[in-house]
Specification:
45% helix; globular; 12 helices; seven-stranded mixed β-sheet; single chain; 288 residues; alpha/beta
């Protein structure tokens, strides 16, 4: 596995994305379950098919670019392959020294966001990102080794990881997570997502309410023909201290919806967003 990753890591990004587009379409064509979930989620969101169709190839590009992202030398800058839009919002939030929480859905190249932030801001303010450790040992070693970069720390999706993020925010540092992941039972609430109930993590709201951290939205747009990425930073809606977990989760979901609607051709529509959480013994989600 490591040798394969090293082999593809030497490929130009343009060729990796071309290969990824092919992988995306082959997966869509060969997997009825993948294809059905993709189309169902697009229909639930009410996105016109021509706007979402490009996400078939983009999903493959996301996979194919991982060797380049993960195996890239830690001291090799992204350089001209990276553009920023809204970086001043991060600078302004960090100036208040009360911590900054950055949220991104499964949109575009979310892996590039953490690396870009660490490269631009990590020298004085590191970022801690939440991740779920791989089950296979060889993948765990690969992911752990590739994501550990100067200014970039990782926190496992465990209670210890949550405590690590809280401490980082209270030190005035940054934390990043994907709030549209389905959490285990007891760590989320049912909240609308494109009008349909989805089990949604409460962690984002809790981190803001417990630490008083600032909140911003971020996503990494994948440019065509391997030209690189644009990291886009946007203002986020307010999560008030008195908001209930359900209210805060709904606020976060709505923000994710708006980001996805602005770039439906780069969203992972086949992600199983509406599945029941692990261990929750019910047949269907509660009504809206």
């Amino acid at each position: 596995m490591l040798s394969l990753f090293r082999f593809f890591a030497r490929w130009p990004l343009r060729l990796l994305h071309a290969l990824g587009a092919l992988i995306g379409w082959l997966t869509y064509a060969c997997s009825p379950t993948y294809r059905r979930r993709f189309r169902e989620n697009v229909a639930i969101a009410g996105v016109p098919w021509p706007q979402a169709r490009g996400a078939i190839a983009e999903a493959g590009c996301m996979v194919a670019e991982l060797p380049w992202l993960w195996m890239r030398p830690a001291d090799e800058p992204l350089g001209k392959r990276l553009q920023w839009e809204g970086a001043e919002l991060i600078e302004e939030a960090l100036a208040h020294k009360r911590g900054l929480l950055l949220l991104t859905p499964h949109l575009g190249s979310f892996e590039i966001c953490a690396q870009a932030i660490a490269e631009k801001f990590g020298a004085h303010t590191p970022i801690t990102v939440l991740f779920r450790p791989a089950r296979q040992q060889i993948l765990r070693e690969l992911v752990d080794g590739s994501r550990g970069r100067p200014g970039l720390l990782t926190a496992p999706a465990t209670l210890a990881g949550v405590r690590q993020m809280i401490r980082a925010l209270r030190r005035g540092e940054m934390v990043g997570l994907l709030p549209d992941q389905v959490p285990p039972e007891g760590l989320g609430v049912w909240a609308p997502c494109f009008g349909k109930p989805a089990y949604t993590m409460t962690l984002a709201g809790r981190l803001v309410q417990q630490t008083g951290a600032a909140l911003l939205l971020i996503w990494g747009e994948r440019l065509p023909r391997g030209e690189g990425f644009v990291v886009r930073v946007m203002k986020a809606p307010t999560i008030a201290p008195e908001d209930t977990p359900e209210s805060a989760a709904s606020t976060v979901n709505l923000a994710m919806e708006q980001m996805i609607r602005n770039a439906p051709g780069q969203y992972l529509w086949a992600y199983h967003r509406y599945k029941n959480p692990r261990g929750l013994d019910i047949a269907v989600a509660p009504p809206a």
